[in-house]
Design goal:
about 90 residues; about 30% helix; Alpha-Beta Plaits; 4-stranded antiparallel beta sheet; alpha+beta
Length: about 90
């Protein structure tokens, strides 16, 4: 499987959609920041279609392929996950 960066902004929401719960229930993932996840999935379209079903016209969602090399600063557990999953 490939790994994708899913990053979103939920703008002007009065009630937050359960997007983080959907990510947890659907894929193997690493949380990179409050609204950015590295997600192991079959395709970017799969991630986009699944998460996009919860969003409205005020929101933003980008799904981007992740590959080595990468560089970042954060918890060791996230680096370990990325090292294991990225080609």
């Amino acid at each position: 499987m490939a790994v994708f960066l899913a990053t979103y902004d939920l703008n002007r929401e009065t009630a937050r959609p359960p997007i983080t719960q959907l990510i947890r229930d659907t894929w193997n993932f690493a949380k990179l920041s409050e609204s950015s996840y590295a997600i192991e999935a079959a395709s970017a379209k799969e991630v986009y279609d699944t998460l996009g079903s919860l969003l409205d016209e005020n929101d933003e969602l980008f799904v981007i392929s992740l590959k080595n090399p990468y560089i970042g600063f954060g918890p060791k557990i996230i680096h370990d996950w990325l090292k294991l999953k990225l080609a």
